[in-house]
Q: What sequence folds into this?
C-alpha cells in the first residue's frame, strides 16, 4: 500500500513510483511506435480503400469504459472487503483479550493465550501470502502446538481450535460460567469469519472470463485506435492514442492488482503492518514490554 | 471455475480455453459472414435509397452497454453471494465442531456428528446440481437416517434436523446446559441460512424479461451493425463489426453463466472442491486420518 | 415468475410469452406508424425550415439511459429484497420448528403450533396480494383465533402474537427455560422482520416523481425520435426508431413490474409456490402426511 | 409521499400534481424564452464569429448525466435507509410489546408501557420535523415524565430511558429474570439504533460541495444549451432545449427532495401515516379499543 | 461540514464559500489563459498540419467521467461509513449508559463511568485528527488512568479496557450477574467496532494508483481540451473549456476531500460537534447539570 503525502496537483501528474506506469510503460511505448508506423503507412493503405473512422470506436470505447467501470468496482470491493476483514480481526482480538482479562481470575496465565492470538494473526497473513509458517509460529507456539498446527490444511483454524481448548479448560476448572464461555466463544467465531472470508477472497478470483473479456477488448481497442485516429489527427495521433490507451490499460492493470488484495504489489494491503499492529495492541493490553517495532513505509512510501 | 496462472498480457489476448469464445464462435462467424454479404450488397440497396448511419447506433450501443453493465452487475452479485454462502457454511461447520469438541464430555461419539456435518455439505451441493444423492449420502448416514433424508423435499434440511436431534439428545442426557445448547443451535441456524440462501439463488432467476430484453437488443444490435458500419468503413466492416459484437455478446453470455453459479460451466463455482475442503477440514479438526484427496484444477485450469 | 428452460440464442430473440412485448406492442406499433407519417410529411416540414438532427438526441438518449439504468437497479433491488425476505421466512420457519421439536417434551401438541406457522406464511402472502384471508386461514386456525386475527390491521402480526402466547404457555408450564424461550422468541422476531419488511416494500413505492420523470422523458424521447432520425435514415427510420424505442420502453415497463414484486404479473415473485413450499417443509419436518401438491409452472412457464 | 394508482401510459405523461413540474416550471419557461432570444440574436452574433457546436456539449452532457446518476443514487439511498429505519421501529415496537405481554405477569399495567412506546414514535417524528412536541406528548406521558422529556437535547432518547426504567422496575420486583430483561433491553437498543440513524440522516446532509457542483453544472449547461443547439435546430431549439433541461433539472430537484426524506414535500416519507400505524398496531396488540383513524392520501394522492 | 440553508436556485449557482471553487480557482484560471494562448497560436500550428478534433476527446471524456463516477462513489462511501460509525458510537454510548443505570444498584458511582465514556469519544476524535490528547483527557480521567492511556498505541482502546475493568469490578462485587455483564460487555464490543472502523478508514486510503490514474487523466484531458475545442468554437473556447474543466476537476478535488472524512476541510465530518453532542447526551442521561455549549456552524455555515 502506498501512503503518499499530499503533493501539489501539478507535481502529482508526473509521479512515477507507486503508480502502475512502470508496469505498463512498455505497452504504451508499443502503442506509440505503432501509431508512428500507422502515420507512415497511411498513404499506402488509403490507396487500398481501407479506412477507419472514430465513430464506431466511440461506441466501442464507451461500452468498454462502462464494463471496465463495473469490473473495477467489483475488484475494488474485494480490496475493501479484505481490509474490513482484517479490521474485524483487530476488533475480535481486542474484544477477546479484554473479555478474558476482565472475567478470568487474576492468577490465570493469560500470556500464553495472548501468544495464541498473535500466532493466529501471523498465521493468517502467511497463509494468504504463501510464506512458510514454521519459523514465525515457533516464536509463539509450544512445540506440541506447532506440530498440530503445521499438520493440517488450514493452520490458522487449528490455532483457533487451540484457543477454544484453552477456554474450555478454564471452563472445566470452573473459572468461566457457561454464559461467559459462550460470550468468549463468540469472539472465536468472529475470528473464524475473518479466516474463511480471507480464504474465500484468496481462493475465488473474479470469474476468469470477466477479466479476460475486458483484457482482450481493452487491448484490441488500443491496438486499433491509431488506425481510427490517424485520419482525423494525423501527426497528433501518437499522443492522443497513448493518452487514451493509458486511461484504459492502467485501469485494467489496477483492477488486476486490487482483485488479489493479499499480494505484495504496490496497491495491495499492508498485511505485515496490520498483523504487527495487532501484535503490539495485544501485548500492550496485557501490559507486556517486549513490543515489536512499528512497520513504517519505505522511501517510496510503500507499506507492506 | 478457472484458476489460471498469470500470463503475459499479450498471450492472454489469445486465450481460447476457459473463455466464452468457444461458445460464441459460431455467432461471431455468422456476424462476419453477414458483414461480407452486406459489403457485397451495398451497391444494390444503396440504389434503393436505403441507408443507415452510425449515429443512431451510437445511442443504441451506449444504452445497451449501460443496461448490460447493470445486468452483469446483478448476475455477478448472485455469483458473489453464492460464494459467500458457501464460505459461511465453512465458517458454521468449523465453529459448530469446535464448540461441540470444547463443550461435550470427552467420551462423546463426536465422529457420528461429524458424519452428519459432512453429509450436509455434500447434500446441499448435490441438491443444487440435481445429482442423485443416495450413493454419496450412504457413506455418511445410517440406513435409518438415509431413509428419512431421501423422503423429503429438502434432504439437507432433514440432515439439519438430525443434527438438532443429536444435540437435543446430548442436552437431555445433561451433557449440555441450556445456554450451550442455545449456542450450538445458533450454528445450526447459520447453516439453515446457507441452505435457504442457496435454494433461493437456484430457484429464483434474474427476472426473465430482464435477461430477454438485453439478449434481444444485443443480438438485434449486432445483426444491424454491419449495415450501419459499411457506409463508413467498407472493407473494414467485418473486423470492426466482429470486435463490437464480441464485446456485447460475450458479456451477455457470461452474465447468463454467472446468473446460475451452481452449474458446472466454466465460470461456475467449484462446489466439488469446496465441499471436499469442508470435509477435509472437519475430519482434520476431529483428528481423523482418512482424509479425501484435495481436488485440483485439470489441465485446462478448470476446477469443478 | 417465468422459469423458462434454456433455448437456442436465436429462437430466444423471438420469444413472445413471458416478455413485456405483449404489453407494449401497441405502443411500438404507434411508434412505427408515427415514423411512417414522419417520412411522408418530411418534404412539407422541411420546406418550413423545421429540422432535427441526431446529435442532441444522442445527449438526451445517453442521459435517459443512465438514469433508467439507476432506476431499474433501484426497482430490481426491491425485487431482490422481497425475495430475500421470503427466503428469511423459510429460514425462520424451519429453525423455529426445529428448535421447538428439539426442546419441548415429546408429548407437546406441536401440530397446532405448526398450523400457526403455516397460517402466518399464507396470511402474509394474502395480505400482500390483497386477497380475502378468511377462507384460507379457517383451515389452520381455530374459530377463536380466526376472530382475533381478522379484527386487526395486520392479521399476520396477530398470528405472531398467538405463536408467542403458545410459547409463553409452554414456559409457564415449565417446559421451557427462560434461555430457550428467549431463543425461540428470537425466531418470532425474525418473522416480524420479514413481515414489516414486506409491508414496507408493498406500502412505499419508489418515489413517484422518480418513476414519472423517467416515464415522461422516455416517451417524449421516443415520440420525437422519428423526427430526428428521418433526415439521416429516411426509409429505414421506422425500423431503427422501433428498435431504440423497444430498448427504452421495455425497460421502463419492466422497472414498473419489478417495483411491486408482490403482484401477479409475469415478472413478480411466485408467492403461491413459496408459501406452499414453506407449508410442505413444515409438515414434513413434523412427519405429517397430508402434504399439499407442489405448485408447478403452467404451459407458459409462468409460476405464481 | 404520492400513492398514485396506475394510469394509462399516455395520460401519465401529462401528470401535473405530485410531479416536480410545478416547482421547476418557471425555470423551464425561462429556458424557453432564452431559446427564443437566442434564435432572434443568431444573425447578430454569428456575424461576430461566435459559434457553439453540439459536440463539446455532448461530452459535458454525458459527464453531468453520469455524476447526476451517482448523486441521485446517493440521495435515494438516504430515502431508502430512512424508510427502513422506520420499518425497524415498527418491528422493534411489535416485538417489544409481544415479549412484554408474553413474559410479564398478567396483572402488570402494560397500558402505561404502551403509552411510552407510542410516545417514542411520535416524539421521533416531531423531532425530525421540528414540530413542538408538548401538545402531542401530553396525551401519552404523565406530567412528571413530560417535564423530564422536554428538558433534554433528544426527547425520544429520554423516553427510551423511561422505558428502560419501567423494565428495570419489573426486574427489581422479580417479575423478570435477567435473561428476559436482557432480551427486552435488546429491543430498546434496536429503537436506539432507529433514533440515532434518523438523527444522522437529518443532521448530516450529502456533502454540500457534491450538491453544489452538480447544481451549478446542470444550470450552466442548460443556460448554454440553446446557443449550442440553435445552429443545427433553429426553430426547433426551444422544444429540444426545454426537453433536455427538464431531464436534468427535474432530477436535480428530485435529488434535493430525496436527500432530506423527513420533510413534508411531495416525495418525502409519510411519517404521520407511519407513526399512526405504529400507534394503531400497539393498541390493537394490547386489545385496546380507542384506535386512531387511519391516515389516508388526500385528493392529490398525497400522504403525509 | 457545511449546513447551508436552502437558497434560490439562481443564487446557489454563484456560491463561493463552502464550495471547492476557492481551491481550484487558480487551476481554472490557468485553463482559461491556456485557452486564450491556444486561440492566438491557432494560425501558427494549423500551418504545421497539427490538428485535434473533438471526437477522440469525446471517447476520453466519457471514459474519464465513468471512472470518476465510480471513484467518487467509492470515496463517498468512505464518508458515509465514517458518519455511520460515529452514529453507532452515539447508539452504543446511550445504550451502555441506559443499561448501566437500569441494572446497577442506585448507590453506584456512575459519574466516573460516564467520564470514561466521554473520554472515549473525545480520544477517538483526537486520535483521528492527530491532536495532542493530554489536555482534553485530563478533564475526564484520573492521573493514573491518564498515564496508562497515553502510554499505548491506541489510547481509545485503553479507555475501553478501563471501562471493562470498571464493569468487571461491579461483577466481582456481585452487583452484576454474568448475563448482565455479558450484555454490557457487548456494548463495549460495539464501541470497539467503531474504534477499529475509524482507524481503518483513517489508515487505509483508496489505493493510491486509483486516485493517481484519475488525477492524471483528468488534468491531461483538461490541458489538451482547448486544443481540441478551438477548431470548432474559436472565441468561445475559453468559456466551454473552463466549464468542462470545472466539472471534472471539482469532482476530482471533492473526491479527495471525501476520501479522508476525518479531516478539517469544508466537506469533512463535524467531529467536534458530534463528540460534544455525545458528551451532552451522556451528561443529561445521568441528570448532571454542567452541560457543554452546543457547537454551532460559523458565519460561513461551517461546522467542525
A:
Amino acid at each position: 500500500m502506498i501512503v503518499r503525502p499530499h503533493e501539489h496537483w501539478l507535481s502529482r501528474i508526473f509521479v512515477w513510483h507507486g503508480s502502475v506506469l512502470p508496469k505498463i510503460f512498455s505497452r504504451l511505448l508499443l502503442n506509440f511506435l505503432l501509431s508512428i508506423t500507422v502515420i507512415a503507412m497511411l498513404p499506402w493503405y488509403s490507396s487500398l480503400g481501407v479506412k477507419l473512422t472514430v465513430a464506431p470506436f466511440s461506441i466501442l470505447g464507451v461500452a468498454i469504459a462502462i464494463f471496465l467501470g463495473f469490473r473495477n468496482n467489483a475488484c475494488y470491493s474485494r480490496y475493501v472487503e479484505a481490509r474490513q476483514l482484517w479490521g474485524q480481526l483487530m476488533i475480535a482480538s481486542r474484544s477477546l483479550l479484554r473479555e478474558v482479562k476482565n472475567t478470568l481470575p487474576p492468577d490465570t496465565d493469560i500470556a500464553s493465550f495472548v501468544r495464541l492470538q498473535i500466532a493466529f494473526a501471523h498465521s493468517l497473513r502467511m497463509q494468504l501470502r504463501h510464506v512458510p509458517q514454521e519459523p514465525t509460529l515457533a516464536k509463539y507456539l509450544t512445540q506440541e502446538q506447532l506440530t498440530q498446527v503445521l499438520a493440517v490444511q488450514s493452520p490458522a483454524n487449528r490455532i483457533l481450535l487451540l484457543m477454544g481448548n484453552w477456554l474450555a479448560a478454564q471452563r472445566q476448572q470452573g473459572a468461566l460460567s457457561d454464559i461467559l464461555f459462550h460470550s468468549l466463544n463468540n469472539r472465536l467465531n468472529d475470528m473464524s469469519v475473518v479466516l474463511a472470508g480471507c480464504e474465500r477472497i484468496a481462493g475465488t478470483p473474479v470469474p476468469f472470463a470477466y477479466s479476460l473479456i475486458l483484457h482482450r477488448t481493452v487491448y484490441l481497442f488500443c491496438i486499433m485506435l491509431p488506425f481510427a485516429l490517424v485520419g482525423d489527427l494525423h501527426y497528433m495521433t501518437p499522443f492522443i492514442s497513448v493518452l487514451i490507451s493509458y486511461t484504459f490499460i492502467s485501469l485494467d492493470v489496477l483492477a488486476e492488482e486490487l482483485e488479489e488484495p493479499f499480494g505484495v504489489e504496490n496497491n495491495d494491503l499492508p498485511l505485515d503492518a496490520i498483523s504487527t499492529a495487532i501484535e503490539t495492541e495485544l501485548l500492550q493490553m496485557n501490559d507486556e514490554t517486549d513490543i515489536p517495532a512499528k512497520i513504517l513505509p519505505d522511501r517510496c512510501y510503500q507499506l507492506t
About this structure: Chain C touches chain B through 73 residues (CB under 8 Å). Chain C has eleven helices and no strands. The mean pLDDT of chain C is 92. Residues 55-204+248-285 of chain C form one domain.
